[in-house]
Amino acid sequence: MQLIDSINPILALLLLLFGLKIYNALMILVWKPFVVTRRFKKQGISGPKYRFSDGNLAEINKMKREAQLSVLDRISHDIFPRETFLYWDGTDPRLCISDPELVTHVLSSKSGFFVRANIRPEFLKLVGSKGLVFLEGADWVRHRRILNPAFSIDRLKVMTKVVVDCTLRMLDEWSEDKTEKLMMKKDMNIEFHRLTADIIATAAFGTSYAQGIEVFRTQKELIECCVISLTNVFIPGTQYLPTPLNFRIWKLDKKMKNSVKKIVDSRLQLKPDYGDDLLGIMLNSSLSIEEIIDECKSFFFAGYENNSNLLTWTTMLLSLHQDWQEKLREEIFKECGKDKTPDSNTFSKLKLMNMVFMESLRLYGPVPFLTREASKDLTLGHLEIPKGTTLIFPLLKMHSDKVIWGSDAEKFNPLRFQNGVSKAANHPNALVSFSIGPRACIGQNFAMIEAKTVLTMILQRFRLNLSCEYKHAPVDHITILPQYGLPLVLQPLED
After folding, report:
1. Residue 185: in which H helix or E strand, if any?
2. CA 134 to CA 127: how far, in whole Å?
3. Which of 95, 253, 266, 467 has CA atoms 20 to 30 A from the CA of 276?
4. Closest to 117 measured CA to CA, from 144, 138, 100, 95
5. pLDDT for 136-195, tens place per residue?
6. Residue range 294-320, pLDDT digits in tens
7. Where are the alpha helices (DSSP H) in 347-495?
């Protein structure tokens, strides 16, 4: 009898704990989605119906699979659906907002009410949790203040020379692949990834593509892991389970940390003169080694993945629009000459080239969307946003919206930027490829100088044509990539 009496309180406690767990689960899985959906519906905002536990993930995966099987017309730049809607990533509400006025308000806000949205653990492995990308508050301010000098005008001039040297190496390799004055075929997506990796490794970290190749390869594999993970609902704590995917992520994370640490350690041996490039500036600062490693991961990723995509899509557009390719070549010959290598003073004169890059960023920006999370219940314009709602700014939709950009929004027309970015559309901040406000991309000036340098040197030597093998199939693979590469035919210019 005593045994039964002692068991009863324990059983009651266990039942109470079990009941609380069931209650919390129902609140998260049922009640919260119901309340949020009803709250937005009252404001005239709807979307696909919430499905128990996985939200709309199954529908999203189906749409992505269908998109990957389709091939667009080469002149079609309509790669994002038009609807703006509320949808669910598991039990997390996500609200697409494409009004440039509201987007500007959020991205420019310093209130602290719009914070970085929660990121899946595997993404933190890719670019580092203690890097500039994901930091908030005082830590972000400290990192930004330390890193700003690495992208000063004087440093950009030095880095321009590095870009020229790396591009010349690539062009020399090309010359060995052809007989004189014969056309050759290259997958420019692969070529540009290799080139931009070499550039960021040399310009920012004083190493080279050969030395940084392990970092780039590992990040490529981690990207694949991230893409796979996006097809599943994230349940907190599952990142610690010994699954095959997690084992692979842990292994790649350790491998990348070791590769980056080797680069850092080799520079530490130069004490006290660490240099004045990005790595040297970080080593001379108050950043910890762990923070430096995470910043290195961020800049390695952004420096080659995003920049190579900008070059890839721009050369695709110029190959498709031969008239603009000739206009740029004429401008280059006029302002830079046929043989002179470009320098930092050249780019301000290349007005047409700048317009082409702006139009390329509009149609095929490397980043498909930006996100923020409401840290409290708040009002945004006419919208009442519940705490915890992730705001999605679909850049591809915003950049091709006819209401914002006019009836030719889906067409390639660089002349829309002839009076500057702020006057290209009916809103001054309609183009947000590099974001805007205090968290705008710190490396955007370097990215543009790098792209202009590379394109100038290629157009001085070659005429670009799309290969008949090219299939126009842009795909969201963390960044916007050509699913089947970019095979181009390069024809050397006559002397």
Report:
1. strand 184-187
2. 9
3. 253
4. 95
5. 989 999 999 999 999 998 899 999 999 999 999 999 998 877 655 577 899 999 999 999
6. 999 999 888 888 999 999 999 999 999
7. 351-364, 395-398, 402-405, 444-459
**Secondary structure of 400-419 in the HEC alphabet?**
CCHHHHCCCCCCCCHHHHCC
Residue among 293, 288, 285, 284 at smallest CA distance from 263: 293
CA 119 – CA 226 distance, rounded (Å): 11
With a cut of 50, which residues of the chain have pLDDT below it? 1, 3, 81-82
**In Å, how far are 150, 267, 309, 491 from 303, measured between CA atoms?**
14, 20, 10, 28
Report pLDDT for 3.
Answer: 46
What does the alpha-carbon distance between residue 109 and residue 374 come to, in Å, rounded to a whole number?
12
**Tokens read off for 447:** 């990215």
By three-state DSSP, how is residue 375 classified?
A: coil
What is the per-residue pLDDT for 84? Answer: 57
Q: What is the pLDDT of residue 392?
A: 92
101's CB contacts (< 8 A; 6+ apart) are: 381, 427
**Alpha-carbon radius of gyration of the chain:** 25
Residue with token string 């009002």:
379
User: Cβ contacts of residue 221 below 8 Å, gap of 6+?
Assistant: 248, 252
Helix, strand, or coil (residue 99): coil
Cis? peptide before 149, omega within 30° of 0 = no
Residue in this structure with the two tokens 């010959």, named with its chain if needed: 333
Ramachandran angles phi, psi of 434, nearest 5°: -100, 15
The number of beta carbons lying within 10 Å of the beta carbon of residue 221 is: 16
What's the Cα-to-Cα distance from 173 to each of 308, 339, 462, rounded to whole Å?
18, 18, 14
Distance CA 390, CA 89 (A): 10
- What span, in angstroms and rounded, lies between the C-alpha atoms of 196 and 310? 11
Find the farthest-apart pair of alpha carbons in the chain and give their distance in angstroms, rounded. Answer: 104
List the beta bridge partners of residue 380: 383
